[in-house]
Amino acid sequence: MTEPDLPISQQPSLPGYTTRKAVNISVVASWTHRQLEHFLGGKERTRIIVVLACVLGLASADTATVGASAAQLISQLHITNTDIGLLVTVPSLLAAVGSLPFGVAADRLRRTRILGLAVLLWGIVMVWSATVNTFGGLLITRVFLGFITAAAGPITASLVGDYFPGTERGRIYGYILTGELLGAGLGFEVTGDISVISWRAAFFILAIPGFILARFLFKLPEPKRGRRIRIQKNPVQPENLPFDYAEYTDEASAGMQGKAYVHSNVDQHIDQNDTNTDAQRLAHELGIEPEARRILRRDPRRLKIVSATKYVMSIPTNLILIAAGASGYFFLAGVATFGMEFVTKWYKINQFFAGLLMLVVGAGAVAGVLLAGRISDTLIKHGVLRGRIYIAIGAAALTTICFIPALITNSPLAALPYLTVAAFGLSAQNPPIDAARLDIVPPLLWGRAEGARTFVRTAAQAVAPTLFGFVSEYIFSGGSSHTADSLRWTFLIMLIPLAANALIMVKAIKSYPVDVATAAASSGTIQNKNTN
Predict the structure, then answer these.
(1) Beta strands 234-236; 260-262: pairing state
(2) Residue 277 and residue 123: Cα distance in Å, rounded?
(3) How many domains does the chain have?
(4) How many CA atoms lie within 13 A of 66 on its CB side?
(5) DSSP-derived secondary structure for 149-182
(6) Same-domain pairing of 99 and 164
(7) pTM of this prediction?
(8) Based on the domain organization, do 205 and 241 belong to the same domain?
(9) Given CB 3.0 to 4.6 Å as the disulfide criterion, which of 116, 154, 176, 212 pairs with 451?
(10) How many Cβ atoms are within 10 Å of 52's Cβ, its own excluded?
(11) Nearest to 498 by CA among 430, 399, 405, 424
Protein backbone atom coordinates (compact mmCIF):
# COMPACT_ATOMS: atom_id res chain seq x y z
CA MET A 1 0.00 0.00 0.00
CA THR A 2 1.53 3.29 -1.10
CA GLU A 3 1.39 6.43 0.96
CA PRO A 4 -0.95 9.10 -0.36
CA ASP A 5 0.63 12.11 -2.09
CA LEU A 6 1.01 14.99 0.33
CA PRO A 7 0.70 18.64 -0.57
CA ILE A 8 4.04 20.26 -1.25
CA SER A 9 3.78 22.27 1.94
CA GLN A 10 3.47 19.04 3.96
CA GLN A 11 6.14 17.03 2.17
CA PRO A 12 9.30 16.33 4.15
CA SER A 13 12.12 18.76 3.36
CA LEU A 14 15.36 17.57 1.84
CA PRO A 15 18.01 19.59 3.59
CA GLY A 16 20.74 17.28 2.40
CA TYR A 17 19.77 17.71 -1.25
CA THR A 18 19.47 21.48 -0.90
CA THR A 19 22.82 21.68 0.85
CA ARG A 20 24.52 19.48 -1.77
CA LYS A 21 23.05 21.61 -4.55
CA ALA A 22 24.31 24.81 -2.93
CA VAL A 23 27.74 23.23 -2.38
CA ASN A 24 27.91 22.10 -6.02
CA ILE A 25 27.10 25.61 -7.25
CA SER A 26 29.74 27.03 -4.92
CA VAL A 27 32.33 24.50 -6.13
CA VAL A 28 31.62 25.30 -9.79
CA ALA A 29 31.80 29.05 -9.12
CA SER A 30 35.07 28.65 -7.22
CA TRP A 31 36.57 26.45 -9.95
CA THR A 32 35.53 28.94 -12.64
CA HIS A 33 37.07 31.80 -10.69
CA ARG A 34 40.36 29.91 -10.25
CA GLN A 35 40.47 29.04 -13.95
CA LEU A 36 39.88 32.67 -14.90
CA GLU A 37 42.68 33.82 -12.58
CA HIS A 38 44.99 31.20 -14.06
CA PHE A 39 44.06 32.22 -17.63
CA LEU A 40 44.53 35.95 -17.01
CA GLY A 41 47.68 35.52 -14.94
CA GLY A 42 46.83 36.13 -11.30
CA LYS A 43 44.37 37.63 -8.86
CA GLU A 44 45.36 41.29 -9.25
CA ARG A 45 45.55 41.06 -13.05
CA THR A 46 42.14 39.43 -13.16
CA ARG A 47 40.62 42.11 -10.96
CA ILE A 48 42.00 44.94 -13.11
CA ILE A 49 41.09 43.36 -16.46
CA VAL A 50 37.56 42.39 -15.40
CA VAL A 51 36.81 45.80 -13.88
CA LEU A 52 38.03 47.71 -16.95
CA ALA A 53 36.13 45.32 -19.23
CA CYS A 54 32.96 45.96 -17.25
CA VAL A 55 33.40 49.73 -17.67
CA LEU A 56 33.30 49.38 -21.45
CA GLY A 57 30.53 46.81 -21.15
CA LEU A 58 28.16 49.22 -19.40
CA ALA A 59 28.30 51.78 -22.21
CA SER A 60 27.68 49.21 -24.96
CA ALA A 61 24.90 47.56 -22.93
CA ASP A 62 23.18 50.93 -22.69
CA THR A 63 23.29 51.50 -26.46
CA ALA A 64 22.12 47.95 -27.21
CA THR A 65 19.29 48.27 -24.71
CA VAL A 66 17.97 51.36 -26.49
CA GLY A 67 18.05 49.47 -29.79
CA ALA A 68 16.40 46.36 -28.34
CA SER A 69 13.73 48.52 -26.65
CA ALA A 70 12.97 50.49 -29.82
CA ALA A 71 9.53 48.98 -30.44
CA GLN A 72 8.38 49.58 -26.86
CA LEU A 73 9.74 53.14 -26.78
CA ILE A 74 8.07 53.98 -30.09
CA SER A 75 4.74 52.61 -28.88
CA GLN A 76 4.68 54.12 -25.39
CA LEU A 77 6.36 57.47 -26.02
CA HIS A 78 4.80 57.93 -29.50
CA ILE A 79 8.11 58.57 -31.26
CA THR A 80 9.68 57.55 -34.59
CA ASN A 81 12.71 55.52 -35.63
CA THR A 82 14.60 58.74 -36.22
CA ASP A 83 13.94 59.65 -32.57
CA ILE A 84 15.40 56.30 -31.55
CA GLY A 85 18.52 57.24 -33.50
CA LEU A 86 18.64 60.55 -31.61
CA LEU A 87 18.57 58.71 -28.27
CA VAL A 88 21.88 57.13 -29.29
CA THR A 89 23.29 60.06 -31.27
CA VAL A 90 22.89 62.75 -28.59
CA PRO A 91 24.85 60.95 -25.83
CA SER A 92 27.53 60.01 -28.35
CA LEU A 93 27.96 63.67 -29.32
CA LEU A 94 28.28 64.66 -25.67
CA ALA A 95 30.75 61.80 -25.16
CA ALA A 96 32.81 63.16 -28.06
CA VAL A 97 32.94 66.61 -26.47
CA GLY A 98 33.67 65.23 -23.00
CA SER A 99 36.49 62.96 -24.16
CA LEU A 100 38.90 65.90 -24.55
CA PRO A 101 38.75 67.20 -20.94
CA PHE A 102 38.71 63.63 -19.63
CA GLY A 103 41.85 62.99 -21.72
CA VAL A 104 43.58 65.83 -19.89
CA ALA A 105 42.37 64.46 -16.55
CA ALA A 106 43.72 61.01 -17.45
CA ASP A 107 47.23 62.47 -17.80
CA ARG A 108 47.12 64.58 -14.64
CA LEU A 109 44.67 63.29 -12.01
CA ARG A 110 43.97 60.03 -10.18
CA ARG A 111 42.33 57.95 -12.90
CA THR A 112 40.69 55.19 -10.90
CA ARG A 113 38.86 57.71 -8.72
CA ILE A 114 37.56 59.70 -11.70
CA LEU A 115 36.39 56.53 -13.42
CA GLY A 116 34.68 55.26 -10.25
CA LEU A 117 32.84 58.54 -9.78
CA ALA A 118 31.76 58.55 -13.45
CA VAL A 119 30.32 55.04 -13.20
CA LEU A 120 28.52 55.90 -9.95
CA LEU A 121 26.89 58.93 -11.61
CA TRP A 122 26.05 56.76 -14.62
CA GLY A 123 24.03 54.40 -12.41
CA ILE A 124 22.16 57.31 -10.81
CA VAL A 125 21.22 58.79 -14.20
CA MET A 126 20.09 55.37 -15.47
CA VAL A 127 17.65 55.16 -12.55
CA TRP A 128 16.47 58.67 -13.42
CA SER A 129 15.94 57.68 -17.07
CA ALA A 130 13.69 54.82 -15.97
CA THR A 131 11.29 57.31 -14.35
CA VAL A 132 10.73 59.83 -17.18
CA ASN A 133 7.41 59.99 -19.02
CA THR A 134 8.25 61.92 -22.19
CA PHE A 135 10.70 61.73 -25.06
CA GLY A 136 12.12 65.12 -24.07
CA GLY A 137 12.75 63.94 -20.52
CA LEU A 138 14.45 60.78 -21.77
CA LEU A 139 16.60 62.82 -24.14
CA ILE A 140 17.78 65.02 -21.25
CA THR A 141 18.93 61.98 -19.28
CA ARG A 142 20.79 60.78 -22.38
CA VAL A 143 22.67 64.10 -22.48
CA PHE A 144 24.00 63.48 -18.96
CA LEU A 145 24.82 59.86 -19.76
CA GLY A 146 26.81 60.88 -22.83
CA PHE A 147 29.10 63.24 -20.95
CA ILE A 148 29.63 60.75 -18.12
CA THR A 149 30.58 57.86 -20.44
CA ALA A 150 33.26 60.06 -22.07
CA ALA A 151 35.57 59.13 -19.18
CA ALA A 152 35.81 55.47 -20.18
CA GLY A 153 37.96 55.66 -23.33
CA PRO A 154 40.85 57.96 -22.32
CA ILE A 155 41.18 56.67 -18.77
CA THR A 156 41.00 52.99 -19.70
CA ALA A 157 43.68 53.40 -22.39
CA SER A 158 45.98 55.28 -20.01
CA LEU A 159 45.57 52.67 -17.27
CA VAL A 160 46.23 49.75 -19.64
CA GLY A 161 49.46 51.38 -20.78
CA ASP A 162 50.72 51.75 -17.21
CA TYR A 163 49.39 48.48 -15.78
CA PHE A 164 50.72 46.11 -18.45
CA PRO A 165 53.99 45.80 -20.44
CA GLY A 166 54.04 46.29 -24.19
CA THR A 167 54.72 42.60 -24.86
CA GLU A 168 51.10 41.71 -24.12
CA ARG A 169 49.04 44.86 -24.66
CA GLY A 170 47.27 43.50 -27.74
CA ARG A 171 46.16 40.46 -25.76
CA ILE A 172 45.12 42.56 -22.74
CA TYR A 173 43.12 44.90 -24.95
CA GLY A 174 41.42 41.84 -26.40
CA TYR A 175 40.31 40.75 -22.92
CA ILE A 176 39.08 44.24 -22.01
CA LEU A 177 37.25 44.82 -25.30
CA THR A 178 35.47 41.52 -24.71
CA GLY A 179 33.56 43.41 -22.03
CA GLU A 180 32.30 45.82 -24.68
CA LEU A 181 30.90 42.92 -26.70
CA LEU A 182 29.45 41.10 -23.70
CA GLY A 183 27.79 44.35 -22.66
CA ALA A 184 26.16 44.61 -26.07
CA GLY A 185 25.01 41.00 -25.73
CA LEU A 186 23.56 41.79 -22.32
CA GLY A 187 21.68 44.72 -23.82
CA PHE A 188 20.31 42.69 -26.72
CA GLU A 189 19.38 39.50 -24.91
CA VAL A 190 18.80 40.19 -21.21
CA THR A 191 17.60 43.75 -20.89
CA GLY A 192 16.14 43.49 -24.40
CA ASP A 193 13.88 40.65 -23.26
CA ILE A 194 12.99 42.57 -20.11
CA SER A 195 12.06 45.60 -22.24
CA VAL A 196 9.32 43.54 -23.89
CA ILE A 197 7.61 43.67 -20.49
CA SER A 198 8.81 47.17 -19.52
CA TRP A 199 11.52 49.39 -20.98
CA ARG A 200 11.64 51.18 -17.62
CA ALA A 201 12.53 47.93 -15.85
CA ALA A 202 15.29 47.32 -18.43
CA PHE A 203 16.89 50.70 -17.72
CA PHE A 204 16.55 50.29 -13.95
CA ILE A 205 18.09 46.81 -13.91
CA LEU A 206 20.97 48.04 -16.07
CA ALA A 207 21.80 50.65 -13.41
CA ILE A 208 22.45 48.05 -10.68
CA PRO A 209 25.79 46.77 -12.06
CA GLY A 210 26.96 50.39 -12.25
CA PHE A 211 26.73 50.85 -8.49
CA ILE A 212 28.59 47.59 -7.87
CA LEU A 213 31.29 48.40 -10.41
CA ALA A 214 31.92 51.87 -8.94
CA ARG A 215 32.88 50.27 -5.61
CA PHE A 216 35.51 48.09 -7.30
CA LEU A 217 36.89 51.02 -9.28
CA PHE A 218 37.48 53.08 -6.15
CA LYS A 219 39.60 50.19 -4.80
CA LEU A 220 41.82 49.74 -7.87
CA PRO A 221 45.49 50.73 -7.41
CA GLU A 222 46.65 53.84 -9.26
CA PRO A 223 49.84 53.16 -11.26
CA LYS A 224 52.54 55.73 -11.89
CA ARG A 225 52.43 57.20 -15.38
CA GLY A 226 55.17 56.05 -17.74
CA ARG A 227 56.72 53.59 -15.25
CA ARG A 228 54.64 50.47 -15.51
CA ILE A 229 54.06 47.98 -12.72
CA ARG A 230 54.47 44.62 -14.41
CA ILE A 231 51.45 43.04 -12.85
CA GLN A 232 51.99 39.45 -13.86
CA LYS A 233 51.97 35.94 -12.58
CA ASN A 234 54.48 35.70 -9.77
CA PRO A 235 53.31 37.21 -6.48
CA VAL A 236 56.00 38.53 -4.17
CA GLN A 237 55.94 40.61 -1.02
CA PRO A 238 56.91 44.30 -1.32
CA GLU A 239 59.82 43.85 1.08
CA ASN A 240 61.32 41.27 -1.31
CA LEU A 241 61.15 43.56 -4.34
CA PRO A 242 64.46 45.15 -5.42
CA PHE A 243 62.81 48.58 -5.71
CA ASP A 244 60.64 50.87 -3.65
CA TYR A 245 57.11 49.66 -4.35
CA ALA A 246 55.63 52.97 -3.19
CA GLU A 247 57.65 54.73 -5.89
CA TYR A 248 55.74 52.86 -8.57
CA THR A 249 52.27 53.55 -7.25
CA ASP A 250 50.44 56.62 -6.07
CA GLU A 251 49.93 57.13 -2.36
CA ALA A 252 46.33 55.97 -2.56
CA SER A 253 47.31 52.53 -3.86
CA ALA A 254 47.01 50.93 -0.45
CA GLY A 255 44.48 48.44 -1.79
CA MET A 256 47.30 46.59 -3.50
CA GLN A 257 49.76 46.62 -0.61
CA GLY A 258 51.18 43.21 0.11
CA LYS A 259 50.69 42.06 -3.48
CA ALA A 260 52.80 42.99 -6.45
CA TYR A 261 53.59 41.09 -9.60
CA VAL A 262 56.76 41.06 -11.63
CA HIS A 263 57.55 39.95 -15.16
CA SER A 264 58.91 36.42 -14.69
CA ASN A 265 60.88 34.16 -12.40
CA VAL A 266 64.08 35.51 -13.94
CA ASP A 267 63.09 39.17 -14.34
CA GLN A 268 62.69 40.16 -10.71
CA HIS A 269 63.25 43.87 -11.25
CA ILE A 270 62.06 46.82 -13.28
CA ASP A 271 64.54 49.06 -15.02
CA GLN A 272 63.40 52.60 -14.33
CA ASN A 273 64.67 53.71 -17.74
CA ASP A 274 62.96 50.91 -19.62
CA THR A 275 59.69 52.49 -20.64
CA ASN A 276 59.81 51.45 -24.30
CA THR A 277 57.15 49.16 -25.68
CA ASP A 278 58.01 45.88 -27.39
CA ALA A 279 57.43 47.44 -30.81
CA GLN A 280 59.74 50.36 -29.93
CA ARG A 281 62.51 48.00 -28.86
CA LEU A 282 62.06 46.01 -32.09
CA ALA A 283 62.22 49.20 -34.18
CA HIS A 284 65.52 50.04 -32.46
CA GLU A 285 66.88 46.55 -33.18
CA LEU A 286 65.88 46.89 -36.85
CA GLY A 287 67.65 50.25 -37.10
CA ILE A 288 64.50 52.28 -37.85
CA GLU A 289 65.36 55.99 -37.72
CA PRO A 290 62.93 58.43 -36.05
CA GLU A 291 61.68 61.56 -37.78
CA ALA A 292 63.82 64.21 -36.10
CA ARG A 293 61.42 67.14 -36.51
CA ARG A 294 58.65 65.29 -34.66
CA ILE A 295 60.70 64.19 -31.65
CA LEU A 296 58.99 65.70 -28.61
CA ARG A 297 61.54 67.59 -26.52
CA ARG A 298 59.20 69.26 -24.00
CA ASP A 299 57.69 67.73 -20.88
CA PRO A 300 54.26 66.44 -22.04
CA ARG A 301 52.75 67.26 -18.66
CA ARG A 302 53.30 70.95 -19.34
CA LEU A 303 51.61 70.95 -22.74
CA LYS A 304 48.25 72.69 -22.94
CA ILE A 305 45.38 70.70 -24.38
CA VAL A 306 45.59 72.46 -27.76
CA SER A 307 49.36 71.87 -28.09
CA ALA A 308 49.07 68.25 -26.93
CA THR A 309 46.20 67.54 -29.33
CA LYS A 310 48.08 69.20 -32.18
CA TYR A 311 51.11 67.01 -31.51
CA VAL A 312 49.28 63.67 -31.30
CA MET A 313 47.25 64.55 -34.41
CA SER A 314 50.50 65.26 -36.28
CA ILE A 315 51.51 61.59 -35.99
CA PRO A 316 50.63 60.09 -39.42
CA THR A 317 49.87 56.58 -38.16
CA ASN A 318 47.69 57.96 -35.37
CA LEU A 319 45.54 59.81 -37.92
CA ILE A 320 45.24 56.64 -40.01
CA LEU A 321 44.27 54.46 -37.04
CA ILE A 322 41.77 57.06 -35.81
CA ALA A 323 40.08 57.21 -39.23
CA ALA A 324 40.06 53.42 -39.56
CA GLY A 325 38.72 52.88 -36.05
CA ALA A 326 36.03 55.53 -36.53
CA SER A 327 34.70 53.84 -39.68
CA GLY A 328 34.51 50.49 -37.88
CA TYR A 329 32.71 51.96 -34.87
CA PHE A 330 30.39 53.88 -37.21
CA PHE A 331 29.13 50.62 -38.69
CA LEU A 332 29.05 48.89 -35.32
CA ALA A 333 26.88 51.68 -33.86
CA GLY A 334 24.37 51.24 -36.68
CA VAL A 335 24.29 47.49 -36.10
CA ALA A 336 23.83 47.94 -32.34
CA THR A 337 20.88 50.29 -32.88
CA PHE A 338 19.04 48.62 -35.77
CA GLY A 339 20.51 45.10 -35.86
CA MET A 340 17.71 43.52 -33.84
CA GLU A 341 15.03 45.20 -35.97
CA PHE A 342 16.77 44.10 -39.17
CA VAL A 343 17.14 40.49 -38.04
CA THR A 344 13.48 40.16 -37.01
CA LYS A 345 12.13 41.77 -40.20
CA TRP A 346 14.49 40.46 -42.87
CA TYR A 347 14.85 36.90 -41.58
CA LYS A 348 11.23 36.80 -40.33
CA ILE A 349 11.95 35.47 -36.84
CA ASN A 350 10.65 36.67 -33.45
CA GLN A 351 12.69 38.71 -30.98
CA PHE A 352 13.60 35.70 -28.83
CA PHE A 353 15.19 33.77 -31.70
CA ALA A 354 16.70 36.97 -33.05
CA GLY A 355 18.38 37.43 -29.65
CA LEU A 356 19.78 33.90 -29.82
CA LEU A 357 21.11 34.56 -33.33
CA MET A 358 22.74 37.77 -32.12
CA LEU A 359 24.36 35.86 -29.25
CA VAL A 360 25.96 33.40 -31.69
CA VAL A 361 27.18 36.30 -33.80
CA GLY A 362 28.43 37.93 -30.61
CA ALA A 363 30.43 34.80 -29.79
CA GLY A 364 32.23 35.27 -33.11
CA ALA A 365 32.98 38.85 -32.13
CA VAL A 366 34.37 37.73 -28.76
CA ALA A 367 36.61 35.22 -30.52
CA GLY A 368 37.83 38.03 -32.76
CA VAL A 369 39.00 40.32 -29.94
CA LEU A 370 40.60 37.46 -28.01
CA LEU A 371 42.53 35.96 -30.92
CA ALA A 372 43.53 39.12 -32.79
CA GLY A 373 45.27 40.70 -29.81
CA ARG A 374 47.16 37.52 -28.99
CA ILE A 375 48.24 36.96 -32.61
CA SER A 376 49.40 40.55 -33.04
CA ASP A 377 51.53 40.31 -29.88
CA THR A 378 53.04 37.05 -31.13
CA LEU A 379 53.97 38.60 -34.47
CA ILE A 380 55.79 41.43 -32.67
CA LYS A 381 57.70 38.91 -30.54
CA HIS A 382 58.76 37.10 -33.72
CA GLY A 383 60.18 40.24 -35.28
CA VAL A 384 57.25 41.30 -37.48
CA LEU A 385 57.15 44.99 -36.57
CA ARG A 386 54.04 45.71 -38.68
CA GLY A 387 52.21 42.67 -37.30
CA ARG A 388 49.48 44.69 -35.59
CA ILE A 389 48.81 46.66 -38.79
CA TYR A 390 48.64 43.48 -40.90
CA ILE A 391 46.11 41.89 -38.55
CA ALA A 392 43.91 45.02 -38.57
CA ILE A 393 43.95 45.24 -42.39
CA GLY A 394 43.08 41.56 -42.82
CA ALA A 395 40.25 41.79 -40.30
CA ALA A 396 38.75 44.85 -42.03
CA ALA A 397 38.79 43.15 -45.43
CA LEU A 398 37.26 39.95 -43.99
CA THR A 399 34.42 41.92 -42.41
CA THR A 400 33.32 43.57 -45.66
CA ILE A 401 33.53 40.38 -47.70
CA CYS A 402 31.43 38.33 -45.27
CA PHE A 403 28.71 40.89 -44.63
CA ILE A 404 27.63 40.98 -48.29
CA PRO A 405 26.27 37.40 -48.62
CA ALA A 406 24.66 37.68 -45.16
CA LEU A 407 22.66 40.68 -46.38
CA ILE A 408 21.68 39.03 -49.67
CA THR A 409 20.21 35.80 -48.32
CA ASN A 410 16.97 35.88 -46.31
CA SER A 411 17.60 32.54 -44.61
CA PRO A 412 18.81 32.96 -41.00
CA LEU A 413 20.63 29.62 -41.08
CA ALA A 414 22.43 30.47 -44.31
CA ALA A 415 23.32 33.93 -43.03
CA LEU A 416 24.52 32.81 -39.60
CA PRO A 417 28.06 31.65 -40.55
CA TYR A 418 28.66 34.77 -42.66
CA LEU A 419 27.42 37.07 -39.90
CA THR A 420 29.56 35.27 -37.33
CA VAL A 421 32.75 35.57 -39.40
CA ALA A 422 31.92 39.21 -40.23
CA ALA A 423 31.51 39.96 -36.52
CA PHE A 424 34.81 38.17 -35.89
CA GLY A 425 36.55 40.47 -38.35
CA LEU A 426 34.80 43.64 -37.17
CA SER A 427 35.91 43.13 -33.56
CA ALA A 428 39.33 41.72 -34.45
CA GLN A 429 40.46 45.11 -35.76
CA ASN A 430 40.29 46.84 -32.38
CA PRO A 431 42.89 45.13 -30.09
CA PRO A 432 45.83 45.51 -32.51
CA ILE A 433 44.79 49.09 -33.37
CA ASP A 434 44.50 50.03 -29.69
CA ALA A 435 47.86 48.45 -28.86
CA ALA A 436 49.50 50.10 -31.89
CA ARG A 437 48.34 53.55 -30.73
CA LEU A 438 50.29 53.13 -27.49
CA ASP A 439 53.40 52.28 -29.54
CA ILE A 440 53.36 55.59 -31.46
CA VAL A 441 52.55 58.04 -28.63
CA PRO A 442 54.83 58.97 -25.68
CA PRO A 443 53.40 57.54 -22.40
CA LEU A 444 52.69 60.88 -20.73
CA LEU A 445 50.40 61.79 -23.64
CA TRP A 446 48.37 58.57 -23.71
CA GLY A 447 45.33 60.10 -22.01
CA ARG A 448 45.12 63.15 -24.28
CA ALA A 449 45.84 61.07 -27.39
CA GLU A 450 43.01 58.71 -26.45
CA GLY A 451 40.80 61.73 -25.75
CA ALA A 452 41.37 63.02 -29.29
CA ARG A 453 40.73 59.58 -30.76
CA THR A 454 37.62 59.09 -28.65
CA PHE A 455 36.34 62.47 -29.85
CA VAL A 456 36.49 61.34 -33.50
CA ARG A 457 35.26 57.82 -32.77
CA THR A 458 32.27 58.86 -30.70
CA ALA A 459 31.40 61.55 -33.24
CA ALA A 460 31.21 58.77 -35.86
CA GLN A 461 29.15 56.66 -33.47
CA ALA A 462 26.89 59.64 -32.83
CA VAL A 463 26.17 60.20 -36.50
CA ALA A 464 25.62 56.52 -37.32
CA PRO A 465 22.24 55.76 -35.66
CA THR A 466 20.54 58.89 -36.98
CA LEU A 467 22.08 58.45 -40.43
CA PHE A 468 21.13 54.75 -40.56
CA GLY A 469 17.60 55.64 -39.47
CA PHE A 470 17.29 58.55 -41.92
CA VAL A 471 18.59 56.58 -44.92
CA SER A 472 16.34 53.58 -44.27
CA GLU A 473 13.29 55.72 -43.54
CA TYR A 474 13.51 58.52 -46.13
CA ILE A 475 15.66 57.16 -48.96
CA PHE A 476 14.78 53.48 -49.23
CA SER A 477 11.20 53.48 -47.90
CA GLY A 478 9.91 56.91 -48.96
CA GLY A 479 9.24 58.33 -45.50
CA SER A 480 7.32 55.34 -44.16
CA SER A 481 8.48 53.25 -41.23
CA HIS A 482 11.43 50.93 -41.74
CA THR A 483 10.85 47.91 -43.94
CA ALA A 484 13.00 44.82 -44.13
CA ASP A 485 14.25 45.74 -47.60
CA SER A 486 15.03 49.35 -46.64
CA LEU A 487 17.14 48.20 -43.70
CA ARG A 488 18.95 45.68 -45.90
CA TRP A 489 19.84 48.32 -48.49
CA THR A 490 20.92 50.68 -45.74
CA PHE A 491 23.35 48.13 -44.32
CA LEU A 492 24.71 47.40 -47.80
CA ILE A 493 25.34 51.09 -48.51
CA MET A 494 26.98 51.56 -45.12
CA LEU A 495 29.48 48.83 -46.01
CA ILE A 496 31.24 51.36 -48.24
CA PRO A 497 33.01 53.23 -45.38
CA LEU A 498 33.71 49.86 -43.77
CA ALA A 499 35.44 48.69 -46.96
CA ALA A 500 37.42 51.94 -47.04
CA ASN A 501 38.71 50.98 -43.60
CA ALA A 502 41.12 48.38 -45.03
CA LEU A 503 42.36 50.73 -47.73
CA ILE A 504 43.00 53.49 -45.18
CA MET A 505 45.12 51.21 -43.00
CA VAL A 506 47.34 50.11 -45.90
CA LYS A 507 49.02 53.53 -45.62
CA ALA A 508 50.03 52.71 -42.05
CA ILE A 509 52.33 49.94 -43.30
CA LYS A 510 54.81 52.64 -44.35
CA SER A 511 54.31 55.20 -41.55
CA TYR A 512 54.03 52.90 -38.51
CA PRO A 513 57.73 51.89 -38.09
CA VAL A 514 58.95 55.52 -38.27
CA ASP A 515 56.28 56.69 -35.83
CA VAL A 516 57.20 53.90 -33.40
CA ALA A 517 60.87 54.95 -33.50
CA THR A 518 59.90 58.62 -33.08
CA ALA A 519 57.79 57.88 -30.00
CA ALA A 520 60.69 55.93 -28.47
CA ALA A 521 63.07 58.81 -29.17
CA SER A 522 60.60 61.27 -27.62
CA SER A 523 60.31 59.17 -24.46
CA GLY A 524 64.10 58.90 -24.19
CA THR A 525 64.61 62.64 -24.64
CA ILE A 526 62.00 63.52 -22.03
CA GLN A 527 63.36 60.98 -19.55
CA ASN A 528 66.93 62.20 -19.95
CA LYS A 529 65.80 65.77 -19.25
CA ASN A 530 63.94 64.68 -16.13
CA THR A 531 66.98 62.68 -14.94
CA ASN A 532 69.35 65.58 -15.48
Answers:
(1) antiparallel
(2) 36
(3) 2
(4) 30
(5) HTTHHHHHHHHHHHHS-GGGHHHHHHHHHHHHHH
(6) yes
(7) 0.67
(8) no
(9) 154
(10) 27
(11) 399
